[in-house]
Amino acid sequence: MSTILMCPPDFYGIEYEINPWMSRAIPSDLEQSRKQWAALRELLTSLNVDVQLMDPVKGLPDLVFTANAGVIWHDRVFLSSFRHAARQGETPVDAAWFSSHGFQTIEMPRGMYFEGAGDALFCGDTLYAGYLVRSDATAMQWLGQQMGCRVIPLQLVDGHFYHLDTCFCPLDARTAIYHPAAFDDYARRALAQIPNLIEVEEDEAARFACNAVVVGQDVVLNAGCPKLEAALQHAGFTPHATELGEFLKSGGSAKCLTLRLDGETAAIWP
Ligand code: ARG
Fold first, then answer.
1. In this structure, is residue 266 part of a structural domain?
2. For the chain, what percent of residues have pLDDT higher than 70?
């Protein structure tokens, strides 16, 4: 059984603008958000996932995006250090949850921004690390030293794909999906080391197709990405689409709303 952390969207909303998808002029609907979030939770439960919950907090609308709480590694969590002041209040809340659930919490060294599993994803035993928009490359190198693993820094060049998990998703130790235009040449060459790469086109990348939750061979993603669904099926995976439009308004989708607590399917931890 896999374990995933989620946080109900009771206080979710578009209260500030820290990425190009967010506009206070286009607010989210609370009822719809609740329904979409609950459907995602149910879908994951039906895939035999143990969904654990963190209490939502008023004034922290992005706490729903648990992928940004930190990076889990064995019984440790490397806590995020958010770039934007609007999200910095989440870290003490995350730290309290992890400490009371048996994790050893580790803080980033001072002055390094780091946004957790939004930017740091294992594919096999290699940590792929998005930097520039939110996380710092130095934070990723520090993380690699702590874990004793290879880190491949990937520069993110398009503000719309501001976290690595918006444009890259490892499916297993040798397979990943990605949106090429979100990366520079060097990053594209680095990614080409992954034996099986599935490309996501612009229209579906903009529907956050890459922001998928992988549980074994099952892949949960936003509705409206038929080309990726077909490609996943072709590669032997089973896609499960669920509508997450309310969260797209904040620049998030399935993956952002989850944090795998027992190691991602694609990860081989050192
Ligand atoms: N509004 C949030 C932000 O801009 C969305 C975070 C999405 N999370 C993610 N892992 N991509 O920070």
1. no
2. 100
CATH of the domain at 33: 3.75.10.10
Q: How far away, in angstroms, is 224 Cα from ligand 1 center?
A: 20
State in Å: Cα 45 to ligand 1 middle. Answer: 23
Mean pLDDT confidence for 158-183? 98
Report strand pairing: 213-215 vs 196-199. Answer: unpaired
Alpha-helical segments (H) within the chain: 30-46, 85-88, 90-99, 137-147, 185-191, 202-205, 226-234, 245-248
Measured distance CA(184)–CA(168) in Å, rounded: 13
* pTM exceeds cut of 0.85: yes
Q: Is residue 42 assigned to a domain? A: yes
pLDDT tens, position by position, 34-58: 999 999 999 999 999 999 999 999 9
Residue percentage of the chain with pLDDT more than 90: 99
Q: Which of 163, 167, 179, 210 is catalytic?
A: 163
Determine the length of the chain. 270
Confirm whether 269 is domain-assigned.
no
